[in-house]
Design a protein that fits this description.
Elements lengths: L2 E5 L3 H12 L3 E6 L10 E2 L8 E2 L6 H4 L2 H6 L8 E2 L3 E6 L5 E4 L3 H6 L5 H13 L1 H8 L10 H11 L3 H5 L5 H11 L11 H15 L3 E2 L4 H13 L3 E4 L14 E4 L3 H8 L5 H9 L5 E10 L12 E6 L3 H12 L9 E4 L13 E10 L8 H11 L7 E7 L1 H7 L36 E3 L13 H13 L4
Helix pairs in contact: 1-11, 1-17, 5-10, 9-10, 9-14
Pfam families: NAD_binding_8
Protein name: NAD(P)/FAD-dependent oxidoreductase
InterPro entries: FAD/NAD-bd_sf
Length: 472
């Protein structure tokens, strides 16, 4: 019987192990932490009874993942919950751009930009499943839906700054800019429009749901499915060298390229080793979890109903903030992504005490304390927020890296989304999952299609591993 060892039990490691186990492979998963999940964990970080997501929080690509749908994680206890408003982007004027799952409802709130929003995202949302089939996999291959890609391509190639000019109102531009900022990159480079287009389109197709009970519920369901398929999971097992990996026909690495080099660098072909050495770490995040009394007192009342709130001012400010951050400057008003998961999932709260999730984009490796800057950004759009804080838990680059070594220097997206690395990660290759060592494959979010709790990095890596077997 074919055997496989999976190193790392994040969502992609679990997905890789699950696909192999369902294909008849004897799978053993090794996880350094005491619990599975990687970036998809949840727990009581501030006060008892209040549940926070440790990293990933909202899952438009998770609920729309064809692999998770095929597995049927709902059979293993996963329940998706949707907020009434997926995302809000408040402005200093008190106005706000509002993103609904319904593109018509979104357009209705954007005034003269409503029609332009529908033209920018409508066809992508309608055809998202076909488009995602080709984009959420290695880019080097024959597309199954070339006409869909041809329609997407001209928009995707644009810098986000150019696409933003399509919108005439500050509300429309800001709403797009906040979504585009998920790229963690400056906006004036080619291809930077692509991720914002995909996230908005996937939201209009599937919404931006949360997992009931916390994002850890996704990992728990995937682990239960893996166990049901015959796989074995061992926690508290740290792999730091080749000697720590049991002999197996296949080895799947839910690790960063840097960790992979530490383990297999001496065995890699020179060209692969050089590519991994050149792989660039992304920007850093600074995360703060709050326990607050009641709701955030937003100036714009619609923000109270939103699962996600983007805090960064108008498009020009977000653009400039991201440019300066990329240049290594810690700005006074960083872009902040704020989560109110309890709006959709009240099981996370304890009575009237609610969890708030917030992270700021900060310069790579930033070692200062951005807690005050994040609070000030929230206060800017919700005066009186500070008085509602009961407890906080902050994590900078070093703490995020310690929590999960895949988050190198606080990079929670597995590598910079800049230039060709955004589409050719971790290296230019027909099979980007193969690390150049017989039977060893990279299955982390540093492999295609990149970050997101969709499990597709693991699934595609497992497919690559299975295809290798006849040749071995």
């Amino acid at each position: 019987m074919t055997t496989a060892v999976v190193v790392g039990a994040g969502p992609n490691g679990l997905a890789a192990g699950l696909h192999l186990a369902r294909s008849g492979v004897d799978v053993r998963v090794l996880e350094a932490s005491d619990t599975v999940g990687g970036g998809a964990r949840s727990g009581e970080l501030t006060v008892p009874g209040v549940v926070h997501d440790h990293c990933s929080a909202f899952h438009p690509l998770g609920v729309g993942s064809p692999f998770w749908a095929e597995v049927g994680l709902e059979k293993y206890g996963l329940t998706w919950k949707w907020p009434e408003i997926d995302c809000a982007h408040p402005l200093d004027s008190g106005d706000a751009g509002l993103l609904y799952q319904s593109i018509d409802a979104t357009a209705a709130g954007l005034g003269e930009d409503g029609r332009r929003w529908q033209l920018a995202f409508g066809d992508l949302a309608r055809n998202f499943d076909d488009l995602g089939h080709d984009l959420l996999r290695p880019i080097l291959g024959v597309p199954a839906h070339p006409l869909r890609l041809a329609a997407f391509g001209p928009r995707a190639l644009l810098p986000a700054t150019v696409l933003a000019r399509w919108f005439r109102t500050e509300r429309g531009r800001a709403l797009y800019g906040g979504i585009a900022a998920h790229l963690f990159s400056r906006f004036d480079r080619p291809l930077t429009a692509a991720l914002g287009l995909m996230i908005a389109a996937s939201g209009h197709r599937y919404g931006w749901p949360v997992a009931e009970g916390g994002s850890g519920s996704i990992s728990a369901a995937a682990a239960a499915a893996l166990t049901d398929a015959g796989g074995k999971i061992e926690t508290g097992v740290r792999v730091v060298s080749r000697a720590d990996i049991p002999d197996a026909d296949l080895v799947m690495l839910d690790l960063s390229p840097a960790q992979t080099l530490t383990i297999y660098g001496d065995e890699m072909p020179a060209r692969v080793k050089r590519a991994y050495q050149r792989y660039r770490v992304g920007a850093s995040a600074f995360k703060v979890d709050f326990a607050i009394e009641g709701d955030i007192p937003w100036t714009n009342p619609d923000c109270v109903r939103a699962g996600t709130v983007h805090l960064g001012g108008d498009f020009g400010e977000v653009r400039d903030t991201e440019r300066r951050r990329a240049a290594g400057v810690m700005v006074d008003r960083p872009f902040v992504l704020l989560g109110q998961q309890y709006v959709a999932d009240p099981t996370r709260s304890n009575g009237t005490v609610n969890p708030i999730y917030a992270y700021a984009h900060v310069p790579r490796g930033y070692d200062g304390d951005a807690t005050g800057a994040i609070i000030a950004q929230i206060e800017r759009f919700a005066p009186g927020f500070r008085e509602r804080i009961i407890a906080t838990a902050s994590a900078g680059a070093a703490q995020l890296h310690s929590y999960n070594p895949n988050f190198a220097a606080g990079d929670i997206i597995g590598g910079t989304n800049d230039g060709l690395q955004m589409v050719l990660r971790p290296r230019l290759a027909i099979d980007p999952y193969a690390v150049g060592v017989d039977g060893v494959f990279l299955c982390s979010q540093s492999a295609p299609p990149g970050a997101g709790i969709h499990g597709l990095c693991g699934y595609h890596a497992a497919e690559s591993a299975l295809k290798s077997l006849p040749r071995r």
